Amino acid sequence: MSPPTTRPRSAFLLRLVPLALAVTYLPLADRPGDPVDGWAWLIGLGAGALFAFGRRIPLTMVLCLSALLVVSDRIGTHADVVVILATFAALIDLALRRGRRWIAVGVLAAGVGLFANFVDVPLTPLQPPFFVVVTGVIASLLGAPVLLGLHLKAARLATAEAQQRANLLEQRQESEKAMVRATERTAIARELHDIVVHHVASIVLRVGVARHLDPDADPETVAALDDVHATGTAALADLRRLVAVLRDPTTLDEEAHAPLLDPADLPDLLLQAVARSRNAGLSLEASVDPTVAGLDAVRGLALLRVVQEGLTNVLKHAGPQASATVNVSATADGAVRIDIADDGTAAARRPATGGHGLLGLRERIHLLGGEFEAGPGRSGWRIHAVLPAAAGRTPVLAAASA
Q1: Are 324 and 311 in contact (CB under 8 A)?
Q2: CA angle, corner 76, sides to 74 and 77, nearest 5?
Q3: Pseudo-torsion of CA 62, 67, 72, 78, nearest 10°?
Q4: Which of 45-54, 206-215, 267-276 has the lowest mean pLDDT?
Q5: 25 CB contacts (<8 Å, ≥6 apart)?
């Protein structure tokens, strides 16, 4: 933040130089027999103040200072040095901020003021060589600040053009990156649709057919087929939504998120995940705090994914005789703790870093500022995660329930 504030402040301090010169020079010019009168102070301070606050009216500033040059010479004050310096500085401003036509008008006015200040007008008799020399000197004096102002203008324009080119280059790079990302998303969506969605749809169809092939099947088999059919149908719907989002990210709005997770349904969704694991044959004890229904959609979805992935890992790796516990609890400060543990003998064979599912969970939790651990526990495998309290939310006291 320092450059934007320092530059205008330093520029304004430079504009105070003629005013500071008037304050320091005029007392030094006061001599016995030739005192600095009130007119000198009025003209000197007026010229300094005009330059200090006339940045937005450079041509008017030059015209007024040129008039002050003539007035100062006619009155015979000691403020000529201050007015001349302010005039040169004003010409720099004029060349920096206005076009050639107005620069020419300002130079002509300043030249008349300087000529009247340097030479006793009218000339009696007019000496052409002297007139030419004086005119040349005045032109040289006026040319220096004008050239300096034009140089500063060219440098400023070059800087602006360079900045514009840099911005265009950055925009082009961002556009190319967006195009690459869009191409990658489209390719992923195509593969998901042509391969994964196709196979999941085939599984759902075959399970639906299998439910009707044996009308005398035992209730456990029917329940298992119904559960597989419901899970596959839900997975198919999620995959199709994912494909739609990958092809058109603009569909990722609040309306699109609404069917994915309603926070009020979160406790029921967690218990459904537990029930599916039990139906698959897992011995499972679960404790879900009902206050998690007050979570926002983002943290609620992360909580649901942790429980789903954790139970899936137990079913895949813990072994057929394993048992597991799931504990979801809210703390007094509004955070949520998730603990999933099993006593499977196959825990030692699992890699410490977990697979892609655990990696995704770790990234999801860390993005929310939480903690995630997965690895061997006392007798099996353990997953521990903490979702921090959302900013700006009132902490809710935990009320554990079985």
Answers
A1: yes
A2: 125
A3: 0
A4: 206-215
A5: 44, 81, 82
Q: Give the β-pairing of 323-330 and 336-342.
A: antiparallel
The answer as to whether 240 is a domain residue is: yes
Alpha helices in 281-367 (DSSP H): 297-317, 356-367
**Residue 352 domain-assigned?**
yes
Please give the torsion angle defined by the CA atoms of residues 166, 170, 175 and 180, in that order, rounded to the nearest 10 degrees: 130
In a domain, 132, yes or no: no
85 in Cβ contact with 18 (< 8 Å) = yes
Domain count, the chain: 3
Beta pairing class for 283-288 and 371-376: unpaired
**Contact (Cβ atoms closer than 8 angstroms) between residue 332 and residue 398:** yes
Place of tokens 């500033």: 61
DSSP bridge pairs for 288 = 328
Q: Is residue 362 part of a domain?
A: yes
Boundary (domain end) residue, out of 72, 105, 121: 121
Q: Is the pTM of this model over 0.85?
A: no
Q: Long-range contacts of range 155-162, CB-CB < 8 Å, 24 or more positions apart? A: 156/96
Same-domain check for residues 45 and 107: yes
Residue that is last in its domain, among 121, 154, 174: 121
CA-CA-CA-CA torsion sign (92, 97, 99, 105): negative
Question: Phi/psi of residue 239, each to 5°?
Answer: -65, -40
Give the range of the structural domain holding residue 270, as residue numbers without chain letter: 264-387
Residues 285 and 346 in one domain: yes
Segment 315-372, tens digit of pLDDT: 887 766 778 899 999 888 889 999 999 887 655 445 555 556 788 888 888 888 899 9
Q: Which residue has the tokens 């440098």?
A: 155
Distance (Å, whole) CA 81 – CA 87: 10
Same domain, 286 and 213: no
Whether 281 and 245 share a structural domain: no
